């Protein structure tokens, strides 16, 4: 992919409501993710699949500041207030968040028991739920050891990237 096209793609993701994009062409894999107001870009070439899988970036990472919708609004306006309310209601503690957009499932099958319930003790790496995205079932693992204090989503509910799913103590 040409550098100019890469910059156009990064800008398109910055300007959109997307929180992530994966693209592959001729042995080059591109993965863009956006958290709040920053986009992090990782590029993999055919020469470095192992390094990319291990978390290393084959090409330099490019960070582009996304335009902040709230900062463009006048002080005290509704969008700025909504943004401050979102941060004020963000749960505290050990939070397990959704790594992708999809549908949340608490159990491996409709008739099965949920992976975890409030009060259960979990270990780091333990499967806590599934998020289905594009017909793929993605296991959501705990990032922490702890006890499940709250479950923020219902079975079958749509979830967003970075949305809190569980709170552990």
Automatic annotation (TrEMBL):
| Top-level division of the source organism's lineage | Bacteria
Per UniProt, residues of the Lipoyl-binding domain are 87-169
* UniProt cross-references to Pfam families, sorted A to Z: Biotin_lipoyl
Note the InterPro entries from the entry.
Answer: AcCoA_biotinCC, Biotin_BS, Biotin_Carboxyl_Carrier/Decarb, Biotin_lipoyl, Single_hybrid_motif
- Keywords for this entry? Biotin, Fatty acid biosynthesis, Fatty acid metabolism, Lipid biosynthesis, Lipid metabolism
Q: Would I find Transmembrane among this entry's keywords? A: no
The metabolic or biological pathway listed in the UniProt record of this protein is: Lipid metabolism; fatty acid biosynthesis
The keyword Ligase belongs to this UniProt entry's keyword annotation: no
Membrane-crossing residue ranges in chain numbering: none
Free-text function comment from the UniProt entry: This protein is a component of the acetyl coenzyme A carboxylase complex; first, biotin carboxylase catalyzes the carboxylation of the carrier protein and then the transcarboxylase transfers the carboxyl group to form malonyl-CoA.
- Quote the protein name from its UniProt record: Biotin carboxyl carrier protein of acetyl-CoA carboxylase
- Organism, by scientific name, is Faecalicatena fissicatena
Q: What is the lineage of its organism?
A: Bacteria, Bacillati, Bacillota, Clostridia, Lachnospirales
